[in-house]
Design goal:
By secondary structure, the protein is of the alpha/beta class. Strands 2-4-7-8-3-9-11-10 form an 8-stranded mixed β-sheet, sandwiched between helices. Strands 1-6-5 form a 3-stranded antiparallel β-sheet, with no helix packed on it. It starts with 11 loop residues before the first strand and ends in a 9-residue tail after the last helix. A hairpin with a 2-residue loop joins strand 5 and strand 6. The longest helix is centred in the last third of the chain and has 18 residues. It is built from 9 helices and 11 strands. The chain has one domain: Rossmann fold. Helices cover 35% and strands 20% of the residues. The radius of gyration is 20 Å and the shape is globular.
Length: 329
C-alpha cells in the first residue's frame, strides 16, 4: 500500500495542481463542514452535522506495521463500511518524498493521477455501520520529521471532531509460531479500556514509533487511548498477514464491546495458515524451527492461562451471540 492511499483512493488529478502537494491533499468537495474548519495543515470536508460519540481507530504504515497487519484493519473496515474521506494532513512539513515517494498512475500512456504520502481521515456513520457511535478511521504513513508538530495537528483535528476515545493499532515481528493464537499486547491510559481485551497489560521500555507518541500525547490531551500490538511471525513477515489482522480486529471488538464485520478474513486466515504449513513442510530446518517455537510458546502458556483464554472466548460468544458473525477462527 504505497503512499498510504489505502481504500480511499484520494488523489490529485494529473491535470490539476501537481507541482506541489500543499493544498492538494484534502478532499476537494468544497463544502464547509458543520462546525469544523481545521488549521493550515489539516482541512475537513464532507462532515454533515455533529458526530455521535465518535471513536478514532488509527494505524500507520512503516515501523509500526509489520506485514501491513495493522493498516490492514483500517483498510478492511473502510471497505466494509464504505467510509467517506473527510480530511488529509498536508504532507509538506512531515514527509521526505525521497523516502516515501508519491505514487503516479499512468493508464494507456496517459498520466491519470498522483497520490502523495500522508495521513488521511475517513468517517463511518453509525447509521451505516449499525453501531451506536460514529467511527473516524485514520490511515497514514509514519511521518519522517516533525513528529511533535504532526501529533499536535492530528490530535487537534480529532479533538475538533469531538473524538472521545482513540484506538491505536500496531504490529511487530516476533518469535511467534504461526500455528498458535496471535499474541496481542494492550496498553492504555485507562484500565477500563483494557478490560476484556484478550491479553494482559504489557510492560515496555524502548524505542517508539508514531503510534507510541500519539498514545502518550492523546492521553495528555485528555483523549482516552488504548494501544493494541500484535505479533507477526518473523519468518513469514510478508504482507498480507490475515491471521494477525483478524486478531487485531477482534481486539478492537473487545475494546468497543461490539461485533465488527469480518467478511472473508476468517477464511483468508485459515488459508494463510495452511499455506505456511505447506511451505514449512518443504523445508526441514524451518519445520524444526517452528516446532521449537511451538514448544516454547506452550511451555509459557500455563494451564490456568489457557483456562482464562477459554473463559474470555466464551464471554465473547455470549456477548455477541445475537449478532450475525462469520464464525470463529
Amino acid at each position: 500500500m504505497a503512499g498510504g492511499q489505502g481504500w480511499q483512493r484520494e488523489t490529485v488529478p494529473a491535470t490539476g495542481h501537481t507541482s506541489s502537494p500543499r493544498g492538494d491533499v484534502g478532499c476537494s468537495h468544497g463544502r464547509q463542514p458543520f462546525g469544523y474548519s481545521g488549521g493550515e495543515v489539516i482541512k475537513f470536508s464532507d462532515v454533515d452535522g455533529p458526530l455521535v460519540n465518535p471513536v478514532a481507530i488509527a494505524a500507520f504504515e512503516g515501523w509500526n506495521d509489520a506485514a501491513e497487519a495493522a493498516s490492514g484493519v483500517v483498510n478492511h473496515l473502510g471497505i466494509a463500511w464504505e467510509s467517506t474521506p473527510i480530511a488529509a494532513i498536508d504532507p509538506d512539513d512531515f514527509y521526505d518524498f525521497q523516502v516515501n515517494r508519491p505514487v503516479i498512475e499512468v493508464v494507456a500512456g496517459k498520466t491519470e493521477r498522483l497520490v502523495w504520502p500522508t495521513t488521511r481521515l475517513s468517517l463511518a456513520r453509525a447509521a451505516d455501520t449499525g453501531l451506536s457511535r460514529d467511527i473516524v478511521l485514520v490511515h497514514g504513513v509514519e511521518p519522517n520529521m516533525r513528529w511533535r508538530g504532526f501529533t499536535d495537528e492530528l490530535i487537534g483535528g480529532l479533538s475538533e471532531l469531538g473524538v472521545e476515545t482513540m484506538i491505536l493499532i500496531g504490529a511487530l515481528l516476533a518469535d511467534s509460531p504461526h500455528t498458535r493464537p496471535v499474541p496481542v499486547q494492550v496498553s492504555g491510559s485507562e484500565s477500563k479500556l483494557m478490560h476484556g481485551v484478550g491479553s494482559e497489560p504489557t510492560d515496555y521500555k524502548g524505542s517508539s514509533g508514531i503510534v507510541g507518541v500519539l498514545q502518550y500525547m492523546a492521553a495528555a490531551a485528555d483523549i482516552p487511548t488504548v494501544s493494541l500490538w500484535a505479533s507477526v511471525p518473523h519468518y513469514v513477515a510478508q504482507s498480507p498477514s490475515p491471521k494477525v489482522t483478524l486478531a487485531l480486529l477482534r481486539a478492537v471488538e473487545d475494546v468497543l464491546d461490539v461485533s465488527l464485520p469480518q467478511a472473508e478474513l476468517p477464511e483468508e486466515a485459515r488459508a494463510w495458515e495452511r499455506g505456511v504449513d505447506e511451505l514449512a513442510q518443504q523445508d526441514s530446518d524451518v519445520a524444526e524451527y517452528v516446532r521449537t517455537l511451538e514448544e516454547a510458546k506452550d511451555a509459557t502458556d500455563l494451564p490456568e492461562a489457557s483456562g482464562d483464554a477459554i473463559a474470555r472466548e466464551f464471554e465473547r460468544y455470549l456477548r455477541r451471540r445475537g449478532d450475525n458473525g462469520d464464525g470463529e477462527f
